[in-house]
From TrEMBL:
Keywords: Lyase, Magnesium, Metal-binding. It comes from Sporomusa acidovorans (strain ATCC 49682 / DSM 3132 / Mol). Homodimer. This is methylaspartate ammonia-lyase. InterPro entries: Enolase-like_C_sf, Enolase-like_N, Me_Asp_am_lyase, MeAsp_NH4-lyase_C, MeAsp_NH4-lyase_N. SUPFAM superfamilies: Enolase C-terminal domain-like (SSF51604), Enolase N-terminal domain-like (SSF54826). Residues 163-411 form the Methylaspartate ammonia-lyase C-terminal domain. One of its GO terms (molecular function) is methylaspartate ammonia-lyase activity. It comes from the Bacteria. Its EC number is 4.3.1.2. NCBIfam families: B_methylAsp_ase.
Amino acid sequence: MKIVDVVCAKGRTGFYFDDQRAIKAGAAHDGFTYIGKPITDGFKAVRQAGEAVSVMIILEDGQIAYGDCAAVQYSGAGGRDPLFLAEDFIPVIEKMIKPRLVGRELNSFKQLAEEVDNLHDDAGKRIHTALRYGVTQAILDAVAKAKKQLMCEVIADEYNTRVSDEEIAIFTQSGDDRYNNVDKMIIKHAEVLPHGLINNVKEKLGEDGELLLEYVGWLRDRVAKLKTTADYAPVLHIDVYGTIGLAFNNDVDRIVAYFRQLEKAAAPLKLRIEGPVDVEEREKQIAVLAEITARLHKENIKVEIVADEWCNTFEDIKDFADKGAGDMLQIKTPDLGGINNIIEAVLYCKQKGVGAYQGGTCNETNRSAEVCVHVAMATQPAQMLAKPGMGVDEGYMIVYNEMQRILAVRKSRKSGK
């Protein structure tokens, strides 16, 4: 089965592009947007509409496969590629990618995906992660349609894995509505919650961490009050965007002591803290996360550290895993470029005994989320993100329902019905 055409359409994402540097510098909320001037290159406002490019691959039998190019909410921060605007990058697809795909046989996802993932522009720079992300999604769908398989089955065949017969734990994120949205998560029995979006010391963490301590205690009590089954005990996973480091001047002794307080506030629930510090440089980030992780283990403080900032590419993930920089690594799917890298990253973390969190961003699309479910089902990470959006219901629905479709189809095939 050959590719006969590649067609692009501009799209919207499930959230927004936010200038993280401007927010950390004190940009204040004004309704749903922010007051102040952007700092990161490419931004025209601190918050602006998220954009995507839908890439459609036309097969010679008329079938249409597609994937969506999307970039993270905090584009341009933490060592990431710059802001992804559709009108800037559709011409790149037309010029550089379409000619390489039209006429190609759809025999191997891995081969075509790696070829696209390694494309460089005229200046010798690797093409934007969002392009690699969306085009490889479309290639996976195209190979699956050509072979009359599910996308997860193509991955399992080519990477010698086994498609899960059980659900992967789904991690839901609250956005700034970190109280009402938690109720939604508990009602739906989300396995991991709430993300929390703790991205400001004064307003959300507290100068001495007191606001987060209060919130963790509230989470513990709210789960106990609203749960409808005795065995429901979700993992508390909170992303603090480096604010603990800011509040405690990156003093590891003070940070470790604070984690002991957090552990007690969460008990009996398990607690994970994502991005406790952000020291604005990759090697220093690895070193400090490794130090914090080791100290928590040594002192038997049962709070897991999750790496995020500066852990962007497959090479980053290998380095963080090799050096013990976190108990769990977020594999932030758009940041890795081709979804072939996501597959490899999950498998590498599992090989190294590090928790694999197949994440992503609220700023993706329904399609990229669906494809990511297939990646998760074929590689079996510890958890995957409900996405896109910050409203809980929509992202959870998209991920949960695609997971259930995969399970039902495969079960039906096995039973012969």
